Amino acid sequence: MSPIPTTPDPPLRPFAPRSSRPLAPRLTEEFVGGQLLAWAGGAALLVALGTLFWLGVRDGWIGEPVRCLLGAVASSGLLAAGLRHARRGRAREASWAMAGTGLAGLYVTSAVAAGPYDLLPPIVGLALLAGLGVAAAWTAIRWESQPLAGVGLLGALGAPLLAPVAGLALPVVVLALGATGLLVRQRPWTWLTALATALALPQVAWHVVELLDAGRGIDPASPGALLDVAAPGLWTVAALAAGLLLGAGWEIGRPAVRERDSMPLLVAVHALIAAALASGYALIGERPVAAALTLAAVAGLLAAAGWSARRRAGAATPVELVLLGLAVLVADLGFALVASGVVQLLGWAVTAVAFALVARRAADGRLPVVVGGVGLHVGLGLIEVVGTVGDGGIGSIVGAALLAAACAVSARVIEPRSRAARLALDATALAVAALWTAVALDPAA
User: Fold this and answer.
1) CA dist., res. 35 & res. 97, Å (int)
2) 149 Cα distance to chain centroid
3) Which residues contact 378 (CB under 8 A, 6 or more apart)?
4) Which end of the chain, N or C, is less surrounded by CB atoms within 10 Å?
5) Closest CA relative to residue 243, chosen from 152, 174, 298
6) pLDDT, tens digit (0-9, with 9 covering 90-100), for 12-58
7) Per-residue model confidence as pLDDT tens digits over 334-390
8) Nearest Cα to 362, choosing from 416, 308, 439?
9) Category of 17 on φ-ψ map: left (φ > 0), alpha (ψ -120 to 50) or beta
10) What is the DSSP secondary-structure string of 203-261?
């Protein structure tokens, strides 16, 4: 007896879950009651605190010590309440709002007490403001609170604008920028980096230019004047160090993590502002040697940061290339301020050959940048040579010969790594030699 044929069941279709589309943000009860109102209340308290100071100053019905005492007590109470609620896990948004408002209030109170009211020695006010910046960074890292970081650290950067502190404005800004850099080195919050840069750099530039203008008529040989002359350069380098921590600290500290897209722009902005302020010694103070020394310090700091990135990563990284490239540009600017004529051409020629030697052993990822360094310095030398065509002196001919020799030597050195670069350098050497042969034989050419 044959078995009864059966029809197999159709295969089950796999379960396809519904696509999870992100919900559009809505003004829910939790958002409005738990977050929006908390931060709005904190902002209202901060405005009330500032208004209290303003009324007291305008009407004179509260003495200066009482105003600072009221501000300190109210701000400390908000900060303590915020920290207490955060430790107990209650209303995180309200805790952040209270703590951030308290930090900002303490910034304003400390700046006013150390500045216009002269109730605290300047060094004490500086220590208070620096400590508040560190406390804000530590609290924001512990709570993973970007809004709190913004209120605390941006409040520190804005404190000199709200309450100008004579002699302390620049140190406060630089220290607050450094504290923000320490935070961003742990948490790559790009928005905070951009806002800190936009808020700090104009203040740094303004105060450094003021120092340069004040030191224009000072004789460095007079007793105690050397520090006054060196102060703009020292603060420029300090601000750049804080800016590099802010713009590239995350990439240097974590070479295995993909760099932020904003890193090259941020680093370039801080480096170029520092180079411009260092050049102010020559433009405002009429001290080209001081400008060159400050530019050398700026270039050295950039190179040290690039070397640190290289040492941590063990290989070429984008942040290293950006830092070293900027270091070369700044060093070239400093050299151009103190050298001219044959000495300047000799410097460009030697630097081009040095870059060619580096390119011969450079890793493939760094080769285009290093070859670009050769081309940059050959181009600078070529500009100097073309500019002296009408001189006809022996110095100009010697300079052209130096440049042609540097191009020929660089071409031979770089040939194993880049045939195109070798052809371009040989062509440049021949062009320079032909030009100055024509000039030497016929000065009227």
Assistant:
1) 9
2) 18
3) 348, 352, 403, 406, 407, 410, 425, 428
4) N
5) 174
6) 444 344 444 444 445 555 555 555 666 677 677 767 767 766 776 67
7) 888 888 777 888 888 888 888 888 888 777 767 787 888 888 888 888 887 777 665
8) 416
9) beta
10) HHHHHHHHHHHHTTT--TTSTTHHHHHHHHHHHHHHHHHHHHHHHHHHHHH-TTSPPPT
Residue found by looking up tokens 């060094």 in the block: 123
Single-letter residue type at 374: V
Six-digit token string for 433: 């030699």
C-alpha closest to that of 70 among 36, 108, 121, 100: 108
Residues in the chain: 445
Distance CA 109, CA 316 (A): 47
Which amino acid does the sequence have at 72? A
- DSSP count for the chain of H helices, then E strands: 16, 0
Q: Position 286: which residue type? A: E
Q: How many CB atoms lie within 10 A of CB 30?
A: 10
pTM of the prediction?
A: 0.72
